[in-house]
Write a structure and sequence with these properties.
Elements (H helix, E strand, L loop, with lengths): L9 H6 L7 H26 L7 H27 L6 H28 L4 H36 L6
């Protein structure tokens, strides 16, 4: 900055930040969108091509998998549509999708293991790892969002909408 350039206020500095998603974020958004859509198409195709009637828990499993795939596709589409930094809200949403998916899949797989009589130990151990990882991501995402919102509040002197 030179002597003749006026000094920008905190608000002007924030407003001048790049309003577009970074290349990395766009790649992640497109990946989430395509993976979610292709996963949903695959699961629905597999589900609809079953030759005979399926048990209720199998319908529930196919439904959950389809919902999670569509949730990731929706998340990717939402990121691409907004195209602006969201103070880490996208990280919080992704962490909650991952936590909901890992918890419900672990629960469903535990129920299946108990009904089959194979014992839920291995399923619970594996599921606990995924739930723990998703929980850590959720806590980190919330902490990052809170830090960014505090920073915005400090720079602008006003409370930012959540």
């Amino acid at each position: 900055m030179t002597e003749e350039e006026p000094r920008l206020s905190a608000r002007e500095t924030i407003e001048r930040l790049a309003p577009a998603l970074s290349t990395g974020m766009r790649v992640r958004a497109v990946t989430a969108l395509l993976a979610g859509l292709s996963g949903a198409v695959f699961v629905v195709a597999l589900w609809s091509s079953e030759p005979g009637p399926l048990p209720g828990r199998t319908h529930l499993a196919f439904t959950l998998l389809t919902v999670f795939c569509l949730a990731w596709a929706g998340y990717g589409g939402w990121l691409l549509r907004n195209r602006v930094p969201l103070f880490a809200a996208e990280q919080v949403i992704a962490a909650w999708i991952a936590l909901a998916a890992s918890t419900s899949v672990t629960t469903l797989m535990t129920i299946v293991a108990v009904q089959r009589g194979t014992g839920p130990g291995l399923v619970l151990a594996t599921g606990a790892l995924f739930v723990a990882a998703a929980s850590v991501l959720a806590v980190r995402a919330h902490a990052r969002r809170a830090a960014l919102l505090r920073r915005v509040r400090d720079l602008t002197g006003r409370k930012e909408e959540a």
